[in-house]
Automatic annotation (TrEMBL):
Domain HTH tetR-type: 11-71
Entry keyword set: DNA-binding
Source species: Nitratireductor thuwali
Gene: ttgW
Superkingdom in the source lineage: Bacteria
The name this protein goes by in its record: HTH-type transcriptional regulator TtgW
DNA-binding region per UniProt: 34-53
Pfam families listed in its UniProt record: TetR_C_41, TetR_N
């Protein structure tokens, strides 16, 4: 039987560790997740974990990157199903905030992530989020759908608002009610960007 290429074996090892850690982090949280338990579940050793991720913190970063990629794909699907670019933009922004109700996202991305990795605005994924928002805003501005604005500046403001809304929801005593309030307020905030002609046309 032919041996697997080394690159494939490395990818499989990393995937097994990430899957086991994601299950543990999502179930009991980062602090209570035992490296011995999830390496054993993956059929690997602590040595493999340290080799591939440098430790538990590095593994959390990998889990967050995986979840973030899945969130981005879910948002792309929301945008693709929208009737207009403006509706797609709004529903994508709202969709991100609503994801804070997902138990796994709450625990890993919005509670343990900031506690272990620090301010989420400094995470690697934030630059891509802001760039995407800026591109969408520029297109909407150039089409006359929204008021004349600085897309880069507004992208930073919207990104900050959505991130803080998500953190608020994830740490609230009643996440469902907090999500409803945050979504209502965020939708009002976004609607304020519409140009007068777009408002008249019911965009």
């Amino acid at each position: 039987m032919a041996h697997k290429p080394r690159s494939e074996m490395i990818a499989e090892t990393r995937a097994r560790l990430v899957a086991a850690a994601r299950k543990a982090f999502g179930t009991v949280g980062y602090a209570d997740a035992s490296m011995d338990d999830f390496t054993a579940e993956a059929g690997l050793t602590r040595g493999a974990l340290y080799h591939h991720f440098g430790g538990k913190k590095g593994l959390l970063e990998a889990v967050i990157a995986e979840i973030d990629a899945e969130m981005s794909e879910r948002l792309r699907e929301i945008t693709a199903g929208a009737e207009t670019p403006w509706r797609g933009f709004v529903e994508e922004c709202i969709g991100y905030v609503r994801m804070a109700l997902d138990p796994e996202i709450q625990r890993i991305m919005l509670r343990d992530g900031p506690a272990v990795l620090g301010d989420p605005t400094t995470w690697p994924n934030q630059s891509a989020c802001i760039a995407s928002l800026s591109t969408n805003l520029r297109g909407l501005r150039d089409a006359g759908t929204i008021v004349d604005l600085d897309p880069d500046a507004m992208a930073h403001l919207i990104n900050g608002a959505s991130l803080n809304a998500s953190l608020w929801i994830a740490n609230a005593p009643d996440p469902e009610e907090t999500s409803r309030r945050a979504v209502d307020a965020f939708r009002t905030l976004l609607e304020g960007l519409l140009a007068d002609n777009a408002k008249a046309n019911g965009c």
